[in-house]
Task: inverse folding
């Protein structure tokens, strides 16, 4: 088994989940995004902000570059939905979501195969020697699973006919 | 990068998602399982049956053994929720879910590393030569992402306080 094939397996899943999630977002109006996925739970717009903040943080975690929208972190990672004084508009979040994922994809496509198996930024070089599964490819795998989790919730926003 | 490490990365995610999902199921009463994850959508018990049927089908797909509960397939794969005349009880489905996952885990633990990169049962030997990413490890990866998707919905059944 060569490394390229394994990287393809995982990056294909990442892109597949992104395409499926974008299909949902594109089919939801800004007004529909303001609804809760289930009574009393997160609104679509909060999940959009949350996913954008999480993917933005992948940029430094994968040692690509600094986060582009760090101001999203307190709003969508530290605070629960419906507790912040104000959050960005759906229009702005949709643009940031697109921008972050395009930036990520550019880095992902250009990372040499061997570099995927080097450490991510949240583990020291010393610890990585003992825990070599905590590599950059593992981050992409984790975030793919995370995206799928919230995609399962976002699909509930679409009205059943 | 050795194959063992990559297999560990993916089988760890599989087990992690199963543990997290079982934590939700164990915390839901049989009565709570009868609720819909969001108004008009699937009930918890349907998702339990659906996941059991999908995981049961992994047994032949991974070329481990025959499906143990093929009678679940028409009810939870071919029919939408609330359309079958009758479905098994929560008690029975909980037992089948546990049994299927234990059976799978036994096979997963014992599969030699190289065998993970051989074809799954839905692709011919000829096609596999051209599409070697369609291997058994890829099935486990897909089903991990699938499980996460429905876990995101099941968590909505738990009453918020």
Result:
């Amino acid at each position: 088994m060569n490394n390229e094939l394994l990287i393809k397996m995982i990056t294909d899943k990442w892109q597949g989940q992104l395409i499926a999630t974008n299909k949902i977002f594109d089919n939801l109006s800004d007004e529909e995004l303001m609804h809760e996925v289930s009574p009393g739970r997160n609104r679509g717009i909060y999940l959009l902000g949350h996913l954008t903040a999480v993917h933005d943080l992948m940029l430094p975690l994968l040692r690509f570059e600094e986060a582009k929208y760090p101001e999203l972190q307190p709003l969508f990672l530290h605070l629960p939905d419906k507790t912040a004084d104000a959050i960005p508009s759906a229009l702005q979040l949709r643009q940031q979501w697109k921008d972050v994922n395009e930036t990520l994809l550019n880095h992902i496509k250009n990372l040499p195969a061997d570099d995927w198996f080097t450490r991510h930024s949240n583990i020291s070089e010393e610890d990585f020697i003992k825990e070599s599964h905590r590599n950059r490819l593992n981050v992409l795998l984790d975030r793919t699973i995370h995206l799928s989790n919230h995609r399962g919730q976002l699909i509930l926003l679409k009205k059943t006919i």
Observations:
- Chain B has a mean pLDDT of 95.
